[in-house]
Amino acid sequence: MKPTIIVNFKTYEQATGSRAESLAKLHEKVREESGADVMVAVQNADIHRVSSSVSIPVLAQHADPVSYGSNTGHDMPECLKENGAWGVLINHSEDRMPMEEIKKTIERCKEAGLKTIVCAENTAEGKDIVKMLPDYIAFEDPELIGTGRSVSANAPESVKGFSDMVDSFNREEGKEVVPLCGAGISTGDDVRKSIELGMHGVLVASAITKAENPESVLREFVA
Ligand code: G3P
Q1: DSSP 3-state of 43
Q2: What burial letters (b/e) apply to 17-50, b meaning 16+ CB within 10 Å?
Q3: Per-residue pLDDT, 43
Q4: Minimum-distance ligand 1 atom for the alpha carbon of 145
Q5: Which atom of ligand 1 is least distant from the CA of 41?
Q6: Pocket of ligand 1 (CB under 6 A)
Q7: DSSP code of 7?
Q8: Whole-prediction pTM value?
Q9: How far apart, in whole angstroms, are the C-alpha atoms of residue 8 and residue 145?
Q10: What pLDDT shows up at residue 1?
Q11: If the chain, 223 residues long, is cut into consecutive pieces of 10 residues, what is the mean pLDDT of each piece?
């Protein structure tokens, strides 16, 4: 199975503005050559710029559960969609939301035709979120984010527990929520280990955005 690789550009300088565009183009090249499901999550202000120059799925890093009207300063799903977003990251560990807001945001994104990738910090939280039927659910251990110590190598039982939970939910409910994991993913082996533990792919940031040669790291991920 070719993995799903979502690369979160966060607000890294190397992945902002014109650099976000160049970095996304390299992801497009690797996606086309490898057949792997590679996507990028860019700063919302970069969505139009990036989505206009690549054909791979571009995700927003945040959406608010608002509709057309008076909501100054909010990121409305319809606007993200119209500017080229394919989907949205919701409840990332660096952008946590109350449960009720996660639910409303998933609903609003669906209405706007956006895919939803919702993060959870542990299996208990994942259990509540999976019922909201996001398209993808990503387990990210906050303690390992940005450390270069991968969640698949350092917390394999938690990864397996999470993917098993999503699997049983899907089987019992006849759904297809896609499980991913992230935090510290740094090598191709970390990606393969995540797959062995039942995940369909990974969410990653620093190992690629801060790499001297992001293309070679990405190629190793999809090998
Ligand atoms: O969303 C991905 C992220 O939080 C993991 O970050 O730098 O540990 O790959 P990193």
Answers
A1: coil
A2: eeebbebbebbbbbbeebebbbbbbbbbebbbbb
A3: 98
A4: 8
A5: 1
A6: 8, 92, 140, 145-146, 182-185, 203-207
A7: E
A8: 0.97
A9: 12
A10: 75
A11: 94 98 98 96 98 98 98 98 98 97 98 98 98 98 96 97 98 98 97 97 98 97 93
Question: How many distinct helices (H) and strands (E) make up the chain?
Answer: 10, 8
- b vs e for 82-109, b when ≥16 Cβ sit within 10 Å of the residue's Cβ? ebbbbbbbbbbbbeebeeeebbbbbebb
Distances (CA, A) of 125 to 102, 136, 165: 12, 14, 11
β-strand partners of 38? 5
What is the DSSP pairing of strand 4-8 with strand 87-90?
Answer: unpaired
Best probe residue, ligand 1, of 145, 147, 151, 154 (max atoms within 8 Å of C-beta): 145
Of 140, 172, 215, 220, the catalytic one is 140
Residue type, 179: P
Atom of ligand 1 nearest to the CA of 119: 1
Q: Is 105 helix (H, G, I), strand (E, B) or coil?
A: helix
Rounded to the nearest angstrom, the distance between the alpha carbon of 205 and the centre of ligand 1 is 4
Q: For residue 58, which of 17, 21, 29, 101 has the smallest C-alpha distance?
A: 21
CB atoms within 10 A of CB 206: 18
pLDDT at 212: 96
Integer Cα distance of 32 and 38 in angstroms: 9
CB 184 within 8 A of CB 154: yes
DSSP states of 118-139: EEESSHHHHHHHHTT--SEEEE
